[in-house]
């Protein structure tokens, strides 16, 4: 084909494409074209426009089905978390002392939430916990607590893997087997750290709604137990 004719053909094709973009319902009036037009595929073969559109619709349907299953799975996970958080709150409400409240918190996080290592760092001593291996007292004025000051002020849980010195402070001799953790700042109480051997269990950017609810429930229960 001479170069001039090739340029004209490309120009006409461009005009046709522009016109079709302005009239997307054109094929409704000429259904025979939808059957006879061909669309190139990645492998080099071609298919009718109707077949191509059908495959596109099938792919969209597969994607929607996948997303629906994903949403359903997330809803079920959230429902289970809501039930466990509610049970944790009830356990804290039933505790008769500050020491029993903390014991209930640690037991629930270890058993119901499958925490591989649960540790509590208190800002002040609590009677009845002198022999608790999962508890330590580090006053707020201690320089080691400075790195957690922002979290304590905001109340926002920390998730992921902490720097070695912070992880050692919170988990002690269990720090080496903690691959990821969640740290719950509890107002006027201290920090509750939940460690996991799974590096993907807790990660930065994960949802923290239920973690914050647990921390708030513990803070309220501890406030109820505080001497007046």
Supply the CATH class of the domain at 68-225: Alpha Beta
Percent strand equals 5-15%
Distance between the termini: 97 Å
Quaternary organisation: single chain
Structural class: alpha+beta
CATH superfamily of the domain at 68-225: GAF domain
Tally the beta strands.
Answer: 7
Question: Could you give a quick summary of the protein structure above?
Answer:
The chain has 228 residues and is α+β, with helices and mostly antiparallel strands. It is built from eight helices and seven strands, in the order H-H-H-E-E-H-H-E-E-H-E-H-E-E-H.
Could you explain how this protein is built, in words?
The protein is α+β, with helices and mostly antiparallel strands and 228 residues long. It has helices spanning 3-22, 26-29, 31-36, 49-94, 98-111, 149-154, 164-171, 209-225; strands at residues 38-40, 46-48, 117-122, 135-137, 158-160, 180-186, 190-196. It has a domain at 68-225: Beta-Lactamase, CATH 3.30.450.40. Strands 4-3-7-6-5 form a 5-stranded mixed beta sheet. A two-stranded antiparallel sheet has the order 1-2. α4 (49-94) runs antiparallel to α5.
